[in-house]
Design goal:
By secondary structure, this protein is of the alpha+beta class. Helices cover 26% and strands 40% of the residues. The longest helix is centred in the N-terminal third of the chain and has 17 residues.
Length: 133
């Protein structure tokens, strides 16, 4: 029996909690410009992590090289603590700037009422996405 293969996804942000909204908007623009220059497509999203709301970018990837480029941008250029990565098996992880990984579960599209009490989720294209067990 053939196993279902999922699209690899990375969700990242350029924002930092200690910066103003203007500074974070500029950082997001800079990240978008970097991705555009590298011909890496993305969708803008609203990310919520531990109840903190920020602009996030969702990138569909198909190789390890793109994942490594995104890690370099997030960790080296934008000083992020982590990115969210979904692998081909549909399992999601936080990849930290130390390259340690924390398994989270599965990133899935959910109904709005399912995120009401969650501290972390993504809103993109009028849909909510969250980790499920």
């Amino acid at each position: 029996m053939r196993q279902l293969e999922y699209t690899q996804v990375v969700i990242l942000s350029a924002e930092l909690a200690n910066l103003s909204s203007e500074e974070n908007s500029q950082r997001t623009f800079n990240l978008q410009t970097c991705l555009d220059d590298l011909n890496i497509g993305y969708n803008s999203a609203i990310g919520v992590y531990k109840y903190n709301v920020e602009t996030s970018l969702v990138v569909l990837i198909n190789n390890i090289e793109t994942l490594q480029v995104l890690q370099g941008l997030a960790f080296d250029s934008f000083k992020q603590d982590f990115i969210l990565y979904q692998d081909k098996q549909g399992e999601s992880y936080l990849i930290y700037n130390t390259l340690d990984r924390e398994h989270l579960g599965k990133l899935r599209k959910v109904h709005k009422h399912k995120v009401k009490n969650k501290d972390s989720y993504t809103y993109m294209n009028n849909s909510y996405y969250s980790i499920v067990a």
